């Protein structure tokens, strides 16, 4: 009855009818038709594979489309006994690389005739020589470029004398001999043509930098940054950025030419009555200036309404309020002006008193932030 119930079955799209022959089973049919046992099961959900009968009609899945391997891989056809591990070892690739190259393949269910992709190392592009500066050299020149020239002459079979970085008569004679051998103008002067004939890839000479009005050209030296240039030239980092919109401040190159703004126009040095001009120095803040000049932060702010206290610039001129009359020291103490290196501890030892006594005599003074020129009161024994 099983046999007759399937005599007139219709096969779904993507499959073709097949009549069971003696010895057939799903596994042998999968190998013969380049498919999988799972695919045959899926095409025949109502058929018992353990009870196939000769003459029975089943549906065979169409073979999978040919595998197209991506760039950097080659196709490989599975053979008896193959596993991903053995294939990876035989082809000198990692198991992970093999899995990545075959994301749709189940490594635990490989079948003979199945096509997978084997990764192959991609040939890297050729490394082009790095262009280097090719300075014009002639007799009397000295330095590492001359030493480089002398080594190249030796490699080319010409004797420049000692490799000492000095362009003397022997180096000049070797250059002339080399130029003659290459059909160049034999003048003993090493220019781009001579460097190129020696196998050097010369960097193109950059066009001269034209700086806009109000700025001046500057050649980058070792250790330069926009920050220290701003301090050195009495300008700001923002001003240098604006003057050099196409320059990467994090990748300055020695010899690179940039434009430095002229110093900003200083504010009028005519300070109002009761104040005096003061030029900002490294480390200055309104707070430590108020202590040094015996005034207050608010008084300095009022005297400089257009100055940003959080963006003081070295060389900037501000107006300092005149020092108010310092309060008199109480009885039993004497006024003292802080000097470099002073601490409450060193002053207590020097004046034969104690740190606590100095603290009590100066309740509004921070002993951890003494300023040179600050006035305090010292208890007298």
Could you explain how this protein is built, in words?
This protein is 28% helix and 13% strand. It has helices at 2-5, 26-32, 37-43, 84-90, 95-101, 144-155, 169-181, 192-197, 226-232, 237-243, 286-292, 297-303, 344-350, 355-361, and strands at residues 15-19, 57-61, 73-77, 115-119, 215-219, 257-261, 275-279, 317-321, 333-337, 375-379. It is an alpha+beta fold and 381 residues long. It is built from 14 helices and ten strands. α9 (226-232) crosses α10 and α13 (344-350) packs across α14. The chain starts with a helix and ends with a strand. It has six domains: 2-61, LysM domain (Membrane-bound Lytic Murein Transglycosylase D, Chain A); 73-119, Roll (Membrane-bound Lytic Murein Transglycosylase D, Chain A); 144-197, Muramoyl-pentapeptide Carboxypeptidase, domain 1, CATH 1.10.101.10; 215-261, LysM domain (Membrane-bound Lytic Murein Transglycosylase D, Chain A); 275-321, Membrane-bound Lytic Murein Transglycosylase D, Chain A (Roll), CATH 3.10.350.10; 333-379, Roll (Membrane-bound Lytic Murein Transglycosylase D, Chain A). Residues 1-5 and 264-268 have low confidence and may be disordered. Strands 1-2 form a two-stranded antiparallel sheet. A two-stranded antiparallel ribbon has the order 3-4. The longest helix has 13 residues, at 169-181.
